[in-house]
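Could someone model 5'-deoxyadenosine with this protein?
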Amino acid sequence: MCKITDAEILRFITTEDTDEAEELFAAARKVRAEHYRNEVYFRGLVEFTNYCKNDCYYCGLRRSNTNVARYRLSLDEILQSCKVGNSLGFRTFVLQGGEDPYFTDERVVEILRAIRGAYPDHAITVSVGERPRESYEAFFRSGANRYLLRHESADEEHYAMMHPSSMSLRARKECLYTLKTIGYQVGAGFMVGTPFQKPEHLLEDLRFLQDLQPHMVGIGPFIPQADTPFGNYPAGTLEQTLRMVALARLLLPKALIPATTALGTISPVGRERGLMAGANVVMPNLSPREVRKLYALYDNKICTGDEAAECRYCMEGRIRGFGFVPNMGRGDVAGWQPPAVS
Ligand code: 5AD
Ligand code: FES
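Reply:
Sure, complex below.
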């Protein structure tokens, strides 16, 4: 059990001393190796809709952004992406989308049943935002195993500065705890360097994670998207994001932590540095190439011109180049016991 104090965490959040940061990364690598050796888990990401009813100030897919060409993948297109992913060796599919009212519970259930029917042994991760408990239960019964829902900021005031008043941190947290009780492996997370973020907010993010005990933690730098209210704010830094990844690893030793696409976007070796700071997951994109550019949460997103196979093998090469070994298995969290489906 890691008993790191608030003062120590704050020092690591803010330090500009590269030796100190390197010690932190080395400690995170050691903890990660105890549970996952030097393996990196692959997840195949299918971004199936870029419609969103929300209006988050940081996100390029916000409903007020009229400069986005909106798309929805059909069931056949989603299944085709999974098929390509399966033949490339992926055993986890991540279905991610904006909060799109077109995808009613019935439609999501139809998609999940179809994927589950075709791939009985794969892990299916869903990421479609906030829904009532009954929806989450229906998805779970239809074959979903995992759910990603970043909390974005665990500080009430800061959360309110990033979202319109129709959204609340309380609702977000409630969803996360509900998902856990249903039996999902749950992912929370946040961005680093969002406008108005203070070191104390990042400390709160970490303490919230300790309370929630998620199985997965997504951490990436904020990157401005020109058509959003935050379009003129600076991006989060690589170094601070890496320190947050390392701290998350120390506080949640068994967590599955992706080296995010946003990290790879702010630095050509961002994802590799993420792995060196304690991350152990990568999520190459399986979406059809035609729609990749349209899932523009932020500007200059990488991998939007590449085929699924290119990213799959590019990532493998990058990982091996840094001494890590790809693991194409389901990659459940260490010690995971699947719950009985009622
Ligand atoms: N920069 C970086 N990450 C972003 N996300 C949304 N907008 C941005 C941005 N401008 C992240 C959010 C969301 C996830 C899918 O992408 O944290 O939960
Ligand atoms: Fe997509 Fe390298 S991971 S091109």
